[in-house]
User: Fold this.
Amino acid sequence: MILRLFILFTVVPLVELWLFLQIAQWTSSLFTILVVVLTGVLGTIMTRSQGLRALQNLKQQIATGRGVTDAILDAVMILVAGVLLITPGVLTDAFGFSLLIPWCRRWYRALVAARIAQRFQVSEMPRQGGDSGTNSRVIDSYVVPRQDELDQRG
Assistant:
């Protein structure tokens, strides 16, 4: 965890700074500043548009009684994209823009779902009592620590 935080708060900004210096060397300082401003403005516009679309999708899914997990994950990814796009950086902007593209979000959702499935155990149990002729089920879940996590805690 410490290594991840170190990379996030030290290595990534250093790489971003190096990339800015390289872009300024290849083009000009004015062009580099213009790119930072334009990506911030474009990112704000795209984030607002995608955010409103995600909110509308969430309301529609709630109204129809469908699951809202995908809509909530989309909203979170759009929020993260907005934060990344207002933060100056080449890598953060590229990742932020990818979070605003719907087909990329589907791919990221699949990664998140796989990660969650890897970390948690989910079991289904048949509903007790009631009408046994229906396909309704109660899904009960609980967190079970993996053995390697227990070993790390000591």
User: Anything to note?
Assistant: The longest strand covers residues 121-126. Residues 37-125 form one domain.
